[in-house]
Amino acid sequence: MLLQLFLVPSFLTFAMANFFAPSDNANAALGPQLQPWYPESDFKTFGSGLDVSKYTPEGQQFDVKKVSVAFLAEYYKKNPDSLTYRDGYEDPDLGVKHAWVEQTHDGIKFANTDGKVTFNRFNKVVTVSSSYVTLTTAPITLLKATLTLEEAIKVAEEALRGTYVPPTSPSASATSDDKSSLQFLANADGSATLVYSVPVKNDSQGTYFQAYVDAHEPKIVAATDYVAH
Ligand SMILES: *[C@@H]1O[C@H](CO)[C@@H](O)[C@H](O)[C@H]1NC(C)=O
Questions:
Q1: Segment 62-83 mean pLDDT
Q2: Is 28 in the same domain as 49?
Q3: Distance (Å, rounded) from C-alpha 217 to C-alpha 36?
């Protein structure tokens, strides 16, 4: 049986927590309108599983990274080059594998879209979900940032009264550069905004935001409150 539901997958709910302005005056000025827009998410289940063995070449082992990208690309009609395996894990008892695949444009990741496939122990697809977008207004002329990461950090730190938290990724070095902080925010009108993704924290105030600073002008276009009540 094929179920079609529209819901927000759990991996996005943390980011969708309401952007309640903290009581602090500086943050209150930002208002709830700063919460990022999230594209509608599509979720389907496939009962006992969809055979995806065609994505594994004859004589080769099942590769969850390759199969999840190839399957999602065909299923959602995306160019495989615009999908990148991000993360996954295997349930040791059930043998169920979860794979998250992010969407990119010109090698730059979308901050507000995501995709996921779940395989059963027989490597058949049991669920698929995605909030991938199709840009109708190509951000071609905006691919190059005019602000530096340093400038973007300053904007976010001042507006949100906190300190930049460099992202820690096991695959990358601890220092983050301009390019690795650049992301796209997909917009409801089919366009995308090039932004710097800047995490800003204030321990004494107990605040932690993911700020998205416009890569072309010194302003915050959206922010996610990680500690919203
Ligand atoms: C944290 O917030 C307080 C109150 O707004 C401010 O005085 C302080 O400088 C902030 N700390 C950092 C590290 O920005």
A1: 97
A2: no
A3: 18
